[in-house]
Amino acid sequence: MLAKIAAYTLIYMTAFGFLLTVTDRILAKTTKHRIHENILIAVACLFGALGVTLGFFLAKRGLYNPEVRLGVPAIALGETVLLFWAVPGFFTALQLILGIGG
What is the pTM of this model? Predict the structure, then answer.
């Protein structure tokens, strides 16, 4: 049960982080409004780091800042290691949810 909750949380927060980062880039081009970088980093700390990292590199946002360029991928790696180590059956639950594996 915990493994499924953790897997769903990771999937949803990854998607949310990615969409938030891409939305920020679109807003910056059209309306000149931005989502503050601290909000994006907070989402990254709440298990959305993989999506925020993908969004940062895809949208080319914040790559000049070493906190973003190095810190957010480090958070993503730490979250992944933490989930695989601390939650028994996480990998299996993730495979079942995503429909991959045997």
Answer: 0.85
